[in-house]
Each structure stands twice: as C-alpha cells, then as structure tokens.
Amino acid sequence: MRLLATLLLLLLLRSAEPRRGPRSGAAERGAGGRVRGRGRAGVMRRQTQECKEYMEAGEKYLDCQDRQLTNVMQDWPKDIHHLLLARNKIQVLRDNMFSQFTQLKSLDLQQNDISMVENRAFSGLSQLTTLLLQHNGLKTAGEEVLLPLRRLTYLRLYDNPWSCRCSLDSLVRTLQVPSNRNLGNYGKCAEPLSLRGQKLRKLSVESLCEGNNQVDTSPGGGVGGGQIPPPIKVKPEATSTCHTYMFPKPLLDCSNKDLNNIPSDLPADLVKMDLSRNTIKHLRPKQFLLSKDLKLLNLSSNSLHRIDTAAFAGLLYLRELDLSNNSLHYFQYGVLEDLYFLRKLSLENNPWICDYNIHYLIYWLKHHPGVFYTGLICSEPREFRGWRVEEYVKTYNGECPKDRQIGGVDTGQGGPGGTDNEAVGETVEGQDEPQHLKENKPKKFEIIRLR
Predict the structure, then answer these.
(1) The LRRCT domain covers which part of the protein (predicted)?
(2) What CATH number is given for 247-413 in this structure?
(3) Alpha carbon distance 451, 449 (integer Å)
(4) What are the pLDDT digits (tens) for 80-136?
(5) Does this model's pTM top 0.70?
(6) Domain ranges of the chain
(7) Neighbours of 271 (CB within 10 A)
(8) Does 3.80.10.10 match the CATH number of domain 52-213?
C-alpha cells in the first residue's frame, strides 16, 4: 500500500509540473504586461496633465496656459468649446492650425510671442465668438484672417505693435464697421511716429496709405531712431497694464502691477475686477462708472485710506467688495449708497477708528441686513481697541437714554417742559421761586440724600 501511494504521489507531481510552468510563465508575462500597461497609462497621464480638461455650465474647457507650448497638439480633444493658450511661446499661427476644433467658442492666445497670422489660420472655427490676441507682437494683418469667423463678437488686439500703414487698411476698415462694436477695442498704432497712440477703431483710414506714413521719417531712421515723445496720459491704461480673460467670466486681472491709481479705459463688459496687491491710496468719484456689469471688485492689500462719495457710482450690480488689508479709518457719508445689491463686504485688517465718523458704516449695514460683512474691529482709541465696532456704537448710543432714565427716577415728577434737575440747576438761593417749585424742593433734597 505504501508503495502504491508513493507511485501515485510521484505521478501526480509530474503531471502538475508542466501545468505549473506555463502558469508561472503566464503570470510573469501578465505581470510584465501589467507593468507595461502602467507605463503606458503613466505616459498618457503625463500627456493629459500638460493641459487641464474640465466642464463648466455644460461646456468643455481645455486649459493649456503656461505650458511653454509652441504649437497645437493633434491629440487634444476635438469637442472642446473653450481653448486657453495664454502665456505660451507660440510665434506663428499657421493655416488650418485650429481647424479640428469645430465646436470652439472661445480661443485665448494672449501673452504669447505671435508676430504673424496666416490668412487661413482660423479656418473651420465657424462657431467662434471670442478671440483674444492681446499682448503679442503683431504688426499687421488683413481682413482675410477674420473671414472664417462668422460669429465673432469679441476681438482683443491691444498691446500689439501695430504698424499703421497701407497693409493694415482692410483690417482697420473691418474693425470700424458700426456693427463690429466689440472688435479691436483699445488697439493702437505703434508706428509710424505721426500716428503713434491713435486707436485703430478711430483712425482715419485714408491716413494709412499716405506717402509720408510709408517711410519712417524720424531722425536716425527706424522705429527707435528718434526721440520718443512723452506719453500724454498719466494714469496707466487697463488694456496695456492688466490681463483680460473672457471665459468662464469676463475678468480684468490687475493684481500686483504696482499701480497707484485706478487704470483708465476700463472695459465695459467686465464681471470681475482684481486690483489687489497694488499701492492705490485714493478712490475718486466715478472711476468705475463704465463697468456697469461688475459683480466682484477686489481692492484688498492696497494702501487705501480715502474713498470719496460716488467712488462706486455705476456699480449697481456689484455683489462682492473686498477692501481688506488697507488703511481705512471710516467711510465718508454716502460712500456705500450706490451699492444696491451688495451681498458681501470684506473689511478685515483696517485700522478702524471708533468715533462718531464710524457711525455711518454701522447705520448703512443696519439698513442692509442682507450684506454679510467681516472685519469691523476698533483699532483706536485705546480704550476701545479690540472691540467690535457694532458694540462700540451701541455703547455710544446707549448713554443718552440711560441718563434720561436716571433723571426720571431721581425726580419722580417730570413735567413736559423739562426735568426737575434742570429746574434745580437754574434755581438761585435767595430768589423768589414759584410756589409749586418751593413745594417740590424738599422732595428733591430728600431724594438726593437717599442716594
């Protein structure tokens, strides 16, 4: 029996070995396959991580900003609605460069190195409504560039060194068509010297092809040969200083630009404006008057110490206002009266002075209970430092009724013509007094004696 059992065991072991071998090999190949699979997945992840794909309000965005890109990748999704390519290294827009993105609604190419746009660069983009080309190196372009863009509504061309000569004639004429009121706003001539600083939309088209504009007549020749005239405007212009983004919402980003004034020429179609981390000290009347659609205004981390009445005039739809980290002591009367629909007011880290001037702010907040606010803490005077401003105002307003109440208790009899304490103060010893005052006099001394 033992011999038979041994033979059966040997047979079973031999029959199991060939099965185990292939399984082991398959396992190794499977493991190797999984390793290779992970490697491919890693490569795919790295490729997709170059651009961020996301959905918002049912539309697909591809964010490829700040990627050092010089071209458009062929493996990008074709069904995107918004392509963000700001702050890359693209130099030339070639024919049919974006033709595969037939559903594209907005194309952001600002802050690249674009110096040339071929005539068919935007072929296939029949759904495009927004094209951002500001902050590049464009000198010339023709109307042919815009012909495929039948639905184009917003075109930004400013902060490009436009050469306002005859080759720009057809583009300028297109921009100046009355129905194209949002195409090419704020774009200006950089040369020739005689037209420098003039807006493309207001330029006399006939002046483009004048003979003296075809050759630079400045001393020394060339664009930089002559002495550059001093700028006329003192205030910085938003279009050349700040960055404009149209999607997902129109935003003007002027943060950390070393501004000491509100920029001029603020675009009228903004929803958000970020002016934080500058050195702005004073808000003057009606500086935001044209930004009537603004819903969020960030003025935090400036040096604000004064806001004039009517500084926020025109901001009827403003919902959020950030004034934190400034040098505000109080608000002048009427400063907040234009903010009908404000819902959030950030006031942290301001040296609020708790005296009579602070009462307007509390009065306004009391009559606008829908406004959520933060940061109202007394900084001065010393006896109120660290108090909530609301508590200080309650204490201030509570003194008068408290005095009147004590006066009533003391006298026990208060006539409509004034308190008995006032009568005592006016009484001079030795003078004849009315009979009713003489009768009440002992009661007054009695009350004072009990106290």
Answers:
(1) 160-210, 350-401
(2) 3.80.10.10
(3) 5
(4) 999 999 989 999 999 999 999 999 999 999 999 999 999 999 999 999 999 999 999
(5) no
(6) 52-213, 247-413
(7) 17
(8) yes
